[in-house]
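Hi Y.,

Following your request, here is the sequence exactly as I used it, all 62 residues.
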Amino acid sequence: MPVITVDISITSKEKKAALVKELTAKASEVTQIPEDKFIVLINEMERDNIGIGGKLLSEVMK
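Below is the corresponding structure, written out as tokens. Let me know if you'd prefer a different format.
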């Protein structure tokens, strides 16, 4: 089974569902593998766990 892994910070369940749906549909279209064969893993990236330029992303995004 093909696996799609995404590292992202999304708080909304609705946005996660939309992302999974769209990624699955496009990957299926491109590869001609049926949608039900895909697994999508969302690795949630908390802004307090990401550093950019020596600062936490949560501080940069203020």
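The longest helix spans residues 13-31.

Thanks again,
Q.
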